[in-house]
Amino acid sequence: MKAVKKELDEMFDNYKPNQKKEEPKVIDLVERVARANQKERDAFTRGLVEKWPLLAKQIMDNIQVEIFETRMKEEEENLERISK
Question: pLDDT tens for residues 18-43?
Fold first, then answer.
């Protein structure tokens, strides 16, 4: 998990607005978090909230929106399927 924290630190330290984002790095980061055990994810979460509380809140909000939109899309698809 230290590697994930280090990578996050580097991403934010080297951030330059209005530049293309490197998608593979984001995917790698997501996969690392997904493969972490619960203790590592807890440490990651705690570190993110302690170091960047506003960012943690924004990410939480974004995740909630993505989940909501995914559920809405699934519901629409189910309704379409049922109504045929």
Answer: 666 556 688 888 899 999 999 999 99
Question: Do 41 and 5 meet the contact criterion of CB atoms below 8 Å apart?
Answer: no
Cα separation, 32 vs 6, in Å, equals 12
Domain ranges of the chain: 1-51, 53-84
- The answer to whether the CB of 63 falls within 8 A of the CB of 45 is no
pTM of the predicted model as reported, rounded to 2 decimal places: 0.63
Q: Are 36 and 1 in contact (CB under 8 A)?
A: yes
d(CA 18, CA 52): 21
State the number of CA atoms in the 13 A half-sphere of 54 facing the CB: 0
